[in-house]
Amino acid sequence: MQTLENNSVIPFPATDDQVAPQGGYETVRFNAMKHGILYRLVVLAHEDAREFADLLAALIEEHRLTGIIERHLIEELVAIIWRKRRVLLAEGAKINEGLKSAVNCPKMVISSAAPF
User: Left (φ > 0), alpha (ψ -120 to 50) or beta: where does 105 sit?
Assistant: First the structure.
C-alpha cells in the first residue's frame, strides 16, 4: 500500500483468487469502515486531524529525516500508532459497556464474580 499526503492509503485491487467464492467478499466488504482499523483513510471524520498532524510532526522532528524512505517509514509508523490508539479506545469502550451491563444485571455480577 502507498501512503498519500492527505493521509489516505491506496489499496491494491483484489484479484479473482483473493475474493472468496459464494459471496465471501460481499459479507465482509464493509468491515474496514465499521471498525476503522484497515480503512483507507488513516484519520476518520470523527477524529482530530490536527492531533494526527502533531504526532507526525513530532516524529519527523525527533528523527531528523534525510530521505524519502525515512519519511515513508515515519508516515507508516504514525499510521500504525494512530490505528493502535483507535483499537485501544474501542477496546476500552467495549470493556466499559460490558461492565455497565454487568452492574445493571445483578445475576451477571454474581456469576461473573464467582470463578466456579
Answer: beta
